[in-house]
Design goal:
- About 11% of the residues have low confidence.
- It contains four helices and 27 strands.
- A five-stranded antiparallel beta sheet has the order 22-24-20-19-27. A four-stranded antiparallel beta sheet has the order 1-2-6-4, with no helix packed on it. A four-stranded antiparallel beta sheet has the order 5-3-8-9.
- It has four domains: 31 residues; 102 residues, Immunoglobulin-like, CATH 2.60.40.10; 96 residues, Immunoglobulins (Immunoglobulin-like); 135 residues, Immunoglobulin-like (Sandwich), CATH 2.60.40.
- The protein is an alpha+beta fold.
- Helices cover 19% and strands 44% of the residues.
- The relative contact order is 0.08.
Length: 433
């Protein structure tokens, strides 16, 4: 019995020993397999890296919202399991921070894109939010992203504007819009406004302005009173709308560059009640005068043959002669009226009073007919040049010049035919006889 019991105890002891060794082998194999698997996962994850980062807008302004897009590529030959992806920052606010809490696996040779919506509720400066990629059983990937916040706005300046605005007249105002930022801005639109301000264009769309790029726009502006003319420039930095405003004072006054018509070299001739006024009209301004017409105003009555004299267009420093006829009874002056338009079609009128005080009264009704035809005259014209005509082309005495030319031709022909020599001989014979 004792010997049998001893053999049984020995057998049980050996079984327990075999079980323990088997358990040790199994546990060791499990640990070895896990370690090998962990080593394989970490090696596979080492082939995953950030290949592209883009920000929109490229440079944020304060309180702008935008996106950070990160592309990750697996350049290895094994799939890699990703637990989650996020942006870590104590300064930049991530608006969709839970979007990538569960990602999945990225296959070999594949690229995965992560888009984060962020907001820059910070002061100007450069910030480094951290892109964090958590692998399953293989550690993590961290990648800092440079994000610049700079709030310089689009600038607006006046290129050309009148010193004063003429009421009810179109005035051109040109402004320049410039982008001093490091990134492109889009949807740039200029809108004018102000009390008493009217414009042909409600707004002008410029579009896109690249870094350090500028464009000019011109508005046609009417101002009814002294006021402030404001130009609002709206633009987008990414998806964020911003505004820059330029305000300029509007002063009402005469236009310094407008056409200015001056009358000179005036001559008045009277024949009974008929008055003829002639002279020159000169454009002393800096703009063209168009559709220039000269006539007379009340109490004078325009009459034939020249009730209205049409000059046409006068460029700056150009002049033209005119002659108008009218009837006047018992008046000491005649209002000479000049109508003209500017390049916009706006009608202007200028009146010059022409004195009749120095004129000689016409003959009485019982006077001779010859006296009625001859009448009387006086001159306000400055002495002219050859033959006494003035500076206007219309005052050249064509008839007198033609007579002189014809006479010269006749003398030349007579001399060449020998008629002058014969006449001289006849005269000499008569004297000798």
């Amino acid at each position: 019995m004792r010997g049998g019991k001893t053999r049984m105890e020995f057998h049980n002891m050996m079984n327990n020993l075999r079980f323990r060794w088997l358990l040790i082998i199994v546990v060791f194999s499990l640990f070895a397999g896990a370690a090998a698997a962990a080593t394989t996962a970490e090696e596979a994850a080492s082939y995953v890296g950030v290949t592209s980062v883009s920000l929109e807008p490229g440079v944020f302004m304060q309180d702008d919202s935008g996106t950070i897009v990160v592309e990750v590529t697996n350049s290895g030959s094994d799939p890699v399991s990703i637990a989650r992806a996020e942006i870590l920052s104590s300064e930049i606010q991530v608006l969709n921070y839970q979007t990538y809490d569960s990602v999945g696996a990225i296959g070999p040779g594949n690229t995965m894109k992560f888009t984060f919506h962020v907001q820059a509720e910070v002061t100007d400066g450069v910030y480094f939010p951290m892109f964090y990629l958590d692998f399953t059983n293989a550690g993590s990937l961290r990648y800092p992203i440079a994000m610049e916040v700079e709030s310089t706005p689009v600038s607006v300046s006046v290129v050309d504007a009148p010193a004063s605005f003429s009421p009810e007249t179109r005035n051109k105002v040109t402004i320049s819009v410039n982008n001093p930022r490091k990134n492109t801005v889009t949807s740039v639109t200029v809108t004018p406004g102000g009390g008493g301000i009217r414009t042909t264009q409600g707004s002008i769309f410029i579009g896109t302005l690249g870094p350090d790029e500028g464009k000019s726009v011109t508005f046609d502006v009417w101002a009814d009173r002294e006021t402030d003319l404001a130009f609002d420039v709206s633009y987008r930095n990414g998806l964020n709308t911003h505004h820059s405003t330029l305000t300029m004072p509007v002063t009402i006054g005469g236009r310094e560059t407008a056409a200015e018509l001056v009358v000179n070299n005036v001559e008045v001739t009277r024949s009974g009640f008929l008055v003829t006024i002639s002279g020159d009209v000169t454009n002393a301004g800096l703009e063209d005068a168009k559709a220039v017409k000269v006539t007379v105003g009340s109490p004078a009555e325009p009459t034939d043959p020249n009730p209205v004299y049409v000059v046409g267009s006068l460029e700056p420093d150009d002049f033209s002669s005119f002659e108008v006829t009218c009837t006047v009874q018992g008046e000491s002056a005649v209002p000479l009226v000049i109508h003209y338009r500017d390049s916009d079609g706006t009608i202007f009128e200028k009146t010059e009073n022409i004195s009749l005080r120095n004129s000689v009264a016409g003959p009485s009704e019982s006077g001779a007919a010859a006296g009625n035809l001859q009448g009387s005259s006086f001159s306000q014209r400055r002495p002219g040049g050859l033959f006494g005509f003035g500076n206007g082309v219309g005052k050249v005495p064509v008839t007198e010049i033609a007579v002189v030319i014809v006479a010269a031709v006749l003398v030349l022909v007579t001399w060449r035919k020998g008629y002058l020599a014969k006449a001289a001989g006849l005269i000499q014979k008569r004297r000798q006889g």
